[in-house]
Write a structure and sequence with these properties.
By secondary structure, this protein is an alpha+beta fold. It has nine helices and 15 strands. The protein has a 15-stranded mixed sheet that branches. β5 and β6 form a beta hairpin. The termini are far apart. The N terminus and C terminus are likely disordered.
């Protein structure tokens, strides 16, 4: 395609994400800023529309929740479009955890960031050739994901799925897993863990603590791995479940930092949530692609979140 014929800006809009009252505002704001707005109608449309836009746009925005962002990034990656395309996020979903972690405060603010905000090259997570930007969580079933309330996702993000699992923990079947992490560039040692897990949580831009929004360093080339062992799970019920579950002193929480890892089920296949999109497999190979995703970020985004006094990972 000749460059003069190119559509430079495409916005992929999920019209049924969140409370579904964002469509008119997003279309108006996007059109004013020169975007070609393309709406999804069915599952997989986000990937398809992003793939189609890869050859013609140098800026592709995803308007929806974390799942919509995942689909758009995955579509661009499958078309080898990430090197030449900047991604923007317009938070119009229920949880919008990734958007919060990159400093976006709402729809209008997101469009201001598109025009005037910084661009950062951040890491991208890869799980069995599928991408994720925020997190990959094992132990969340598709049923639990679909049953998690919108209110829960709005308050806790991906941890709402974990909380939903905790609330039904007496019927939860633990996961016999082997987790192998690789040696890292800054002295991270290769380690192996084998045991019964309640959840295994892998963060790219997401750090797992008891708070809804906890940004990880997404420019360090490392994934943050949290394994919740089954031994400490049975009493984690009630309102303080998340705080107790991810407390730094919890002997049943194993934490690792690694550029890549393998999670192998020792029994049946395991369901994983990649930014809310489900994947079922017996063996999951995860790695980071450092600085693979150029994205528009707000002023509240910190490349290293520990610089502002938040507790250091593993401290």
């Amino acid at each position: 395609m000749h460059v003069d014929d190119a559509t430079e800006r495409v916005l992929v809009l999920n019209p049924v994400s969140g409370s579904e009252d964002h469509v008119e505002d997003v279309v108006e704001l996007a059109t004013e800023r020169g975007f070609d707005v393309r709406k999804t109608e069915a599952a997989g449309d986000g990937q398809r529309l992003a793939r189609e836009a890869a050859d013609e746009a140098d800026l592709v925005a995803a308007a929806g929740g974390d799942g919509t962002v995942n689909e758009v990034v995955d579509g661009l990656a499958s078309a080898d479009g990430l090197e030449t395309t900047t991604v923007a996020v317009v938070p119009a979903g229920t949880g919008n955890n990734f958007a919060s972690n990159i400093g976006l405060k709402g729809i209008e603010h997101a469009f201001d960031v598109i025009e005037n905000g910084r661009r950062r090259a951040i890491d991208l997570g890869i799980a069995n050739d599928r991408t994720f930007v925020n997190s990959c969580v094992g132990g969340i079933t598709a049923e639990a994901s679909s049953e998690t309330s919108a209110e829960g996702k709005a308050e806790f993000g991906v941890l709402a799925y974990v909380m939903n699992g905790i609330e039904t923990v007496r019927s939860f079947e633990s996961l016999p897993l082997r987790v192998e992490t690789a040696q890292g560039p800054s002295g991270e040692v290769a380690e192996s863990w084998t045991g019964e897990a309640m959840f295994v949580l892998v963060g790219n831009c997401r750090r797992f603590s008891g708070t809804r929004t906890a940004q990880a360093d997404v420019e360090d080339g490392l994934l943050e791995v949290t394994i919740v062992e089954d031994a400490g799970a049975l009493d984690l019920l009630g309102e303080t479940a998340l705080e107790r579950l991810f407390d730094r002193g919890n002997a049943h929480v194993v934490r690792r930092r690694t550029p890549s890892l393998t999670i192998e089920s020792l029994r049946d296949s395991v369901e994983y949530s990649l930014d809310g999109e489900m994947l079922e497999t017996e063996t999951l190979e995860l790695e980071t692609e450092s600085a693979a995703l150029t994205i528009a970020v707000g002023d509240g985004y910190r490349p290293n979140p520990d610089d502002d006094g938040r507790w250091p990972f593993g401290a």
